[in-house]
Inverse folding.
């Protein structure tokens, strides 16, 4: 456990409903999922930042001065992330609200047509369809930084699921390909890509010929631009930039999805 018992008890109290308390393991899982969403690592520091930002927990008495300095850096990342998401949600709300147009005293309503940045129909679960919908909504509203952050999240989860499905839980070595068992946290995207690349070179995905070094190169491209979008407040992107990122995206996604479905 990476939190003191007193702090964990506070977490459980804050996260539990009145009629259904949650366990410490469930607290860990909630924090794991939040860390993936935020794209941040270091479970202890990130967990303290999440406790402070999302649950208003006073973490000072549970942290050293050095930890508090690191927490402040994480809090800045979280604030920037939430700022972008709030901007995205605000724009998304405008899509779902029908626009009123008055023509010769007659009122008509219409929804803005959703533009398809990606359109894949073979995802393995509803989670991915929802993520694709959010990507297309952000693209329609020209919130391009949000598009790239969500694409990064989409790739991260596909690679995580591929490694988890291919190597399972049979040994600590296998689990460590996608989950840091010592720190009890999922591997960051960069490590997931490196581990996938290593296993491809070892021939573990020989029955999937399109899982090769060229695919890995393309994944890194989307990882890098997603990172820049997530960690820089002002990113000047236009439609021409997005067309460049759109070129091979569906190919990359289809290869990963076909691999995942075929395992």
């Amino acid at each position: 456990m990476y939190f003191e018992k007193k702090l964990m008890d506070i977490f459980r109290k804050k996260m539990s409903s009145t009629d259904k308390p949650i366990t410490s393991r469930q607290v860990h899982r909630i924090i794991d999922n939040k860390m993936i969403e935020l794209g941040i690592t270091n479970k202890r520091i990130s967990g303290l930042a999440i406790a402070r930002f999302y649950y208003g927990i006073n973490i000072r008495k549970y942290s050293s001065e050095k930890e508090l300095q690191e927490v402040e850096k994480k809090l800045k990342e979280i604030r920037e992330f939430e700022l972008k998401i709030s901007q995205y949600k605000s724009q998304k709300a405008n899509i779902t609200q029908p626009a009123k147009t008055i023509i010769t005293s007659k009122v008509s309503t219409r929804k803005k047509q959703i533009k398809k940045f990606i359109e894949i129909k073979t995802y393995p679960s509803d989670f991915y369809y929802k993520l694709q919908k959010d990507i297309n909504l952000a693209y329609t509203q020209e919130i391009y930084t949000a598009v790239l952050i969500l694409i990064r999240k989409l790739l991260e989860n596909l690679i995580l699921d591929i490694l988890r499905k291919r190597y399972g839980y049979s040994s600590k070595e296998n689990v460590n390909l996608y989950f840091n068992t010592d720190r009890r946290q999922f591997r960051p995207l960069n490590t997931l890509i490196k581990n996938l690349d290593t296993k491809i070179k070892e021939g573990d995905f020989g029955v999937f010929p399109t899982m090769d070094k060229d695919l890995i190169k393309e994944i890194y491209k989307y990882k890098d631009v997603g990172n820049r979008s997530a960690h820089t407040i002002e990113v000047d992107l236009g439609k021409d930039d997005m067309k460049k990122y759109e070129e091979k995206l569906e190919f990359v996604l289809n290869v990963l999805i076909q691999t995942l479905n075929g395992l």
